[in-house]
Amino acid sequence: MKTRLGRENPFAVAAFASPALLLFVLFVVLPMLLAAGATMTNHRLMSPEPTRYVGLDNYRRLLALNVAVVEPVRDAQGAAVRDEEGVRYPTWRQVRKDKPALEGYRPAFQIDIGESRVVLAATDPLFYRSLINTFLFAALVLPLQCGVALGLAILVNQKIRGRVFFRTVYFAPVVTSMVVASIVWAFMLNTDRGMLNELLRGLLHDPNAGPDWLGDSRYALPAIALMSAWQGAGFQMLVFLAGLQSISHELYEAATLMGANAWQRFVHVTLPGLRNTIIFVLVSTTLLAFGLFTQVDVMTSGGPLDSTTTVVYHAVRSGFKEQDVGYGSTITLVFFVIVLALSALQRMLVSKGDAK
Amino acid sequence: MNVKMSRTLRDIALFIGMSAIGIVFIAPLLFMFVSSFKSDNAIFADLNKLSAYLPSAEWSMRNYTSVFEKSDLPSFLLNSTLIAALVVVGGIIINSMLAFSIARMRWRGRNLVLALVVAMVIVPFEVIAIPLLSLVAKLPWPAIEHGQLVMHTGWFNSLHVQVIPFLANAFCVFLFYQFFRDIPPELDEAAKMDGAGPWTVYARIIMPNSGPVIATAAIVLFISAWNQYLWPIMVIQGEAFRPVQPGIQQFFGRTNSWGQIMAYASVITLPVLAVFLAFQRQFVASVAGTGIKG
Fold this sequence. Notes:
Chain A is mainly alpha-helical and 356 residues long.
């Protein structure tokens, strides 16, 4: 019997497609479905107690937010008491005693409006802290890494001797593992004798210049962003390079004939020509930035003062180190929804740009 | 003449600029390699000098010999090599077969499968890690004990837990698909006319003509397998099946000799750098290719 034209034998198709598809189902799709189920339970990795259905408890614990307006401590005349640090406020313990609804809540962040202090309290303030840190990291690393990558690509695209060598040099950090890169940088970011601080001291002629990069909560996340951009920029450089090479030479020649200078050629020929490449690079860098884990685990363990704890780090700590799989899966799933929403948002912005 | 002069000047300026940037990019790695041959005292003495990045007079292999004596680095290297080799070989076969079926066979639903594979590229592994952990804790694995076949539950502390979940790789399927799609149809149609089955077409015609994409997939799979960190720290306790990246992290926490740490780092970085340098051309070409179309 002859098989129908244009249709392949289903057994042959299955033989070719099924190994990879089975593995995808088993190790990507199934874990996601199981995660969705696990968020409704108190499942622990190694526990003598049977797993119990807890409904939306994990989501409540993760997401619950409460606003408390804290009035300053007042003296007999009703004026706010001040000390050397400014207006004095009652401690969180005292606030909670007055408001039973705040049981289990801890401050996540606060702003002072006039004399009163508005506190946003959460049952898991570390989640909100790590969410802010993750966005902050993305906001730091995205322009830095993509900007550097575009600059490198333009340099490497020049017709100049040794460009293949330079391309290899700029790419070398990408093939260095993140763990090794983190360890080497931890040494170079050392406060007293690290390379970066020595350089700063030389430039500023100040023997005391240079921050405690990884030990100061203001600098730890920017330092990790700097190091991550160094490690990753080479990859985006290659992608930009391909984009640059696909822009036709005639466009540049025409622009030059019309009297455009180098900057005008960059703005009116290069950037529009790179549109799709830029979108691809921005999306992939965002996804990488949101997965921030290794650098944090090796360099700072989430510290100092939780300033480098990210969503993934928090999820791994809960789900693996504390063996609370139900809660860790909940963080994971909420994180996934955020990533999906961001990609959808980027896609929307892109299609808007198309319509223009 | 004047134009030529200004071109030369421009080229010199460019060259100097690119070298300066190159130094920034290579300095940490040079520092790592150079320090691995120095004593700790020499490392600290040279730190704020140029010699921190240059070969010095008194080099020794002492850091390397101590690292190999003091840690289980040889066993970790063997584990990582086995894991990477299995992931590369298995991954190339499995992913190219799926890509072949999508690009070169006609069946209903193949466009949907392709769309799902592309969608899976954006799922970060970090999202899967925790749920995958509780899944592999329940999976069975056969073993032969006292001449009898027994089923163990849980995939922890093994090589296969570090290999099997990483064989199917959406990015690789996509790479292969793009390449296979652009191979001229005449190439396998003639063979099909002669009665060759899909396996013959795949093994004798398509794969032998896919050198560049196989090299790229090999590099992608090798680098990701060799650099695995999050997953092994979750599924491997003890040292028997530990690979190199968690190995160095643990060594980093245990020793205070920077020379030895840098020797360790150099040992586990060199193989990847070597693979990259060997396959540079293919690698660059295909990373570039995916970027435009993605």
